[in-house]
């Protein structure tokens, strides 16, 4: 939680020392609000997306196609964090990149608000691009507010920032979801644009409180690099335009011409990035060993996110068609289920942190490997739990809303075991040469998981069938047990990292 340090106890010259935000540099308030509004717009649109895609008043697509589009969109958001970080490091600097990213996201939501299927996909693309640019750079600016990694307020600052994420994620489905489902879909998307607009406005007003070097470009491109990059980008853009023009004018274009390449990229790029790092001859033996261990965590995380992120697609579509979305006779919009995860995170994150500290003092805190195994087993258990409402629906009845709440609860407990640990182990095991890139590599695990879901949907696999759900649940549990069985070997590969 927030540090209780006062103005007099902080290091002189630290940005924002003249006034504080819960004992932290004042710039944290700017970044907190920016991220809160960005997450408000992102999660609000995300809660509406699969429902709009299948709704008769929306695009009226099949559940498989809707899941594929949703999964591809999520995979792109996380895939684009790597080039987003590159832009912050080499082109615009973090502050300018975040400001531009917010504008792109707002434009994307406004495009989604237009009542046209043609502009809809362009809007999705803009939101994905803007989210990738923003996500990679705003956390960097949070770190820049503090006097180096040893500043005692640093961890508390990131905790406060994380609460902003979950506040936005909690409020979004309750407002944007309600308006989108009950009033007008496009009005809901427009409300997401308003939220992002408020985020951009307060970021521009409050940017004077950020660290001065957040405006600097850490490693600016040379003239030669800039020319080469523009030339390559122009070549690939022209190639894509020509290719899709030929496909379109020949009358062969379908949505799969976009979905299939993007899902394949979501699987191939993570593999290529990890392979490139692993084969780097300049890494010493210890770094090579840690990367071998990290691949275990990466694959485990990909399996986890493949199942976890279906909470917004497979589970949401099931709730829309086969659940009794009411409590004590009071009905609520399907999109409200997406508020369950953030509220549970806000309630349980302090509990998990307290438990880990208590166990640590007794020398009994589970290792990183064991926590990962627990996260995988829990997300697998959530889909075994999903078999119950599926069975109820197959019997011709509506499944109770609390079945879905229970599934989200189990998944969130799994997230609290795996996600924070994954972020931590990524920074600890990163080779020095790739220190600034490894957080983007961690996000590629989400990309790989969501892209796999997209490929299954494109292939015609019905993810709401009992057999498929049971197979995914079994995969997660088996993966968790397998890593647990080889935990000693993984610990050896990790070297001095614990």
Describe the model.
The protein is an all-alpha fold and 498 residues long. Helices cover 73% and strands 2% of the residues. A hairpin with a 2-residue loop joins strand 4 and strand 5. Helix 1 (27-54) runs antiparallel to helix 2. The protein folds into three domains: 21-210, Growth Hormone, Chain: A (Up-down Bundle), CATH 1.20.1250; 224-249; 254-498, Growth Hormone, Chain: A (Up-down Bundle). It has 17 helices and six strands.
Entry summary:
The protein is mostly helical.
List keywords for this structure.
single chain; 498 residues; mainly alpha; Growth Hormone, Chain: A; 3 domains; two-stranded antiparallel sheet; two-stranded parallel sheet; 73% helix; disordered N terminus
Helix and strand topology:
Layout: E1 20-21, E2 24-25, H1 27-54, H2 63-79, H3 81-90, H4 94-112, H5 117-144, H6 154-182, H7 185-206, H8 223-249, H9 256-278, H10 285-308, H11 314-322, E3 323-324, E4 326-327, E5 330-331, H12 340-361, H13 368-394, E6 399-400, H14 401-429, H15 438-458, H16 466-485, H17 487-494
Strand order of the largest sheet: 1-2
What's the CATH first level of the largest domain?
Answer: Mainly Alpha
CATH architecture of the largest domain: Up-down Bundle
Helix share bin: over 70%
Radius of gyration: 23 Å
How confident is the prediction overall: mean pLDDT? 88
Q: What is the domain tally?
A: 3
